[in-house]
Specification:
By secondary structure, the protein is mainly alpha-helical. It has 2 domains: 27-183, Tetracycline Repressor, domain 2 (Orthogonal Bundle), CATH 1.10.357.140; 187-314. The protein has helices spanning 27-37, 40-58, 64-88, 90-95, 111-132, 135-156, 163-183, 188-211, 213-218, 224-228, 230-254, 259-281, 285-313; strands spanning 2-7, 13-18. A two-stranded antiparallel ribbon has the order 1-2. The chain is globular and about 50 Å long.
């Protein structure tokens, strides 16, 4: 029997008992299932924003050791948050095509073990970040985990269509973690980087939600397309795209970036806004999916351009 922590509709938590299913899978399959709990593809995107933040903060290469320890601890922390998210959202994941093959809906891992795994990852990540990087970065990383679990997953996701707007703050934290890892503090350019990811998250996720609108409705998750419809959603996507453009220009100013970043920021944001306008004119699922896919490349290329700008000028 395994004890497990269950999220109620009100956001409260309670302990209940569950019986683990027999372990039939091979060791490789079990390891793969635990890795899947951490949502590696999401972690990759988070880490892509961490290293450029460190490079800008250091005004050059911050050192291989510091980068590796920050990425390892940050990856473990994000993985722990994602594993706990999988535990809490296992009922939603089971009814959505996009998520029903995750380890908990397919009973590859018992819920209680997933919760323990995520908690242990979070604790180890905090201690590792503290011991190898510094305490401010460790606290920021831990704050991101707690915010994602308690504010977004338990508090906002099932209660308001603004869930991803508020929850997006957790996904923007790696920029602050990376900056604090180098400087031990948070400065104005770091907040601008945070703002870029914060304003990028809603149009990125709302475009995804438009593709899976019916599934979110079936799972009773109040994503914006479900609650307000497509016309209102695409209007918000366009507005956030424009605010994202403005934040990218603000970062250029406060961080004293060079021409490489400026050219990349203008070009990438022009394409992002172009996709948003296209979606505003044609609210089809195909167009929404096109914007979603572009938004992934957009964020990676923008932060890579910031890093390249600093390294070339260093």
């Amino acid at each position: 029997m395994a004890r497990r922590l269950t999220a109620e509709a009100s956001g409260a938590l309670r302990i209940e008992e569950s019986v683990d299913s027999p372990a039939q899978a091979s060791l490789r399959d079990r390891i793969a299932a635990y890795v899947a709990l951490t949502k590696p593809r999401i972690i990759e995107l988070l880490l892509v924003t961490t290293v450029p933040s460190m490079i800008v903060a250091a005004e050059g290469w911050p050192g291989l050791s510091l980068v590796l320890w920050t990425l390892l601890a940050g990856g473990l922390s994000a993985g722990g948050a994602n594993a706990i998210n999988c535990y809490v959202d296992r009922d939603i994941d089971a009814v959505m095509t996009r998520t029903r093959k995750r380890p908990l809906p397919t009973h590859k891992i018992a819920p209680g073990r997933a919760l323990v795994f995520g908690t242990v990852l979070g604790v180890v990540a905090f201690l590792l970040m503290w011991g190898t990087v510094n305490l401010p970065a460790a606290f920021l990383s831990l704050f991101a985990l707690l915010f994602y679990v308690f504010v977004y997953t338990l508090g906002m996701k099932r209660s308001t269509p603004q869930n991803i707007v508020i929850g997006g703050a957790a996904g923007a934290m790696p920029a602050l973690v990376g900056w604090a890892a180098v400087t031990g503090t948070i400065e104005l350019p770091a907040l601008a980087l945070f703002g870029i990811i914060f304003y990028w998250t809603p149009p990125h996720f709302w475009a995804l939600a438009m593709r899976y609108e019916k599934e979110y409705a079936r799972a009773d998750v109040p994503m914006m397309p479900v609650v307000y419809g497509r016309k209102e959603t695409v209007r918000h996507i366009l507005l956030y795209s424009l605010m994202l453009f403005a934040m990218c220009l603000a970062f250029f100013s406060v961080a004293k970036m060079g021409i490489i970043y400026l050219i990349a920021a203008v070009a990438l944001n022009a394409m992002f806004v172009g996709w948003a306008v296209k979606l505003w004119r044609n609210t089809s699922t195909r167009t929404a999916w096109g914007l979603f896919r572009f938004s992934i490349y957009y964020l990676a290329l923008l932060f890579m351009a910031a890093a390249a700008d600093v390294l070339i000028r260093a």
